[in-house]
Amino acid sequence: MAHAHDSALYAQWVELLGWLEAEAASRGLGFEKVADFPDYIYRMERPYDLPTTVMSVRVTSGGQPLMIAAVSPRHADLKAVSLRLMGGSKHWHLHAGAAGLLEGKRPFTQARLALLLDGAVQGVRAV
């Protein structure tokens, strides 16, 4: 994959992190970093050139993970963002597009994320 494509993915990942944090806050959910990029942790005083150090986060409900979001590390060949709902089989693989993340060929928007989180919260309340 071209470096420009990788740069777009990581910039779009940062945008998604902002959406996740805002959508979690608006629902009274927690938002926590899970892990940093391995190459950030082991960079040995070299400058870090990605727009974030965060590789994965979780949205929590009552202290329990509700959704996990992660982006591929730089050394992966086929990079993507993954979203996974905990306690089920639902997951999404998002790829970099010209104007933002794509879910297949469909743009993945903040409204789409809000819909997914609403469904997850509704599922937790139903249990």
UniProtKB/TrEMBL annotation:
InterPro entries the UniProt entry points to: Frataxin/CyaY_sf, NADH_quinone_OxRdtase_su15, NADH_quinone_OxRdtase_su15_sf
Organism classification: Bacteria, Thermotogati, Deinococcota, Deinococci, Deinococcales
Gene Ontology MF term list: ferric iron binding
Any Pfam family: NADH_Oxid_Nqo15
Official protein name in the record: NADH dehydrogenase subunit
GO biological process: iron-sulfur cluster assembly
Signal peptide limits: none
Originating organism: Deinococcus arcticus
